[in-house]
Amino acid sequence: MKTLYFDCIAGASGDMILGALLDAGLSFDKLKEKLNLLNLDEFKLTLIKVKKNGFAASKLDVIVKDEKHERHFADIKNIIEQSHLSEKVKKDALKIFWALCEQEGAIHDSSPEKVHLHELGGVDTIVDVVGILVALELMGIKKIISSPLPFGRGFVNGAHGKIPLPAPATAALLKNIPVYGIDINHELVTPTGAVLLKTLASEFGKMPAMSIHNIGYGAGTRDMEIPNILRVFIGETNIHGEYITEQLILLETNIDDQNPEFYDHIMNLLFEKGALDVWMDSIQMKKNRPAVKLSVLCKPGESDKMKRIIFSESGALGVREQVVMRHSLPRELKSVKTKYGHVNVKFARFNGNIKIIPEYDDCKTLAIENKRPVAEIYREAILSASKEIGK
Question: Percentage of residues in the chain with pLDDT exceeding 70?
């Protein structure tokens, strides 16, 4: 699977992201050709090579003439919908700007439709957002992962005067995303960078196991104590060809003082909040006390939510955390028709063979409705799925 990893050394902004993608091999001419489909004639792009603390990086600038900064969502929607961009780029762009409007509206106690986007409504922001979506489409990126994001300190000038860093929109957009503070008095993550990464990245954490094909460096404007660059790695995460390799988090805790009736509730909460798997093992602790080891598998960006549930809902006083690698088969979910009703079935391929796994809950529901053994529904689903493969 073609994967893009954002290494946010000094934060993220729209121009840094786009500069990094150009540095990693995106054609500048093709990008300009696609951006012309916006039908905006008041901007031009410049691309130069610069050095940041010794690192060579690509610096992209959107030069705008006669800029009208203040726009409503309807204005931006009109620009995007009247363009000749692909439907996917249009849909994703509108999703990103709507997320910006929602946060700005909440900050200024206004509805998303009525809020004014000042700097964020400028042509340069529209070009950055659409340009990045076009770049991902041109480069065939299928999965995006980002490192945790650094927050600087200080103030930045905005339409309403001095704004504390991180900017309120940035902070709001990055709720439940891994961030950390560093002792630098500059804006490191802009609202545009925040909304792009939150919307596009499927997870935040360490770099996954991948075969790297391209590396790119995008430069920010300022010179700082650290290299003001964003680095991207592009490559294949399915490095073994037949299965997907990804980095996950395993959380474990030993519990010896829990009412066993409560475990069902804890497990359901963990699954609702994004756990990939939850299980329990019977163990023997010190002084021969019987206990349960609760294990939770989740994506890196979800581990804090899982720990909060464990601490809130159980008697656990500590949680062990470790990074694990999971190898899984690519799968496809299809609904197949049986004589008892429809069942969702997973299809997975390996070594030239196809594995067929019916969804148990679907089979259970049909078994109750038809007053038949669940094993019979299960067999019927496999039979129907096999016929689908034959077709």
Answer: 93
Residue 278 CB contacts under 8 Å (≥ 6 apart), including other chains? 267, 270, 271, 294, 295, 296, 297
Give me the phi and psi of 182, to 5 degrees please: -130, 155
Name which of 275, 285, 274, 272 is nearest 316 in CA terms: 285
Is cis: bond before 191, omega within 30 of 0?
Answer: no
Q: φ, ψ for residue 138 (rounded to 5)?
A: -65, -35
Mean pLDDT within 44-73: 87
Predicted TM-score (pTM) of the model is 0.66
Nearest to 329 by CA among 343, 316, 345, 347: 347
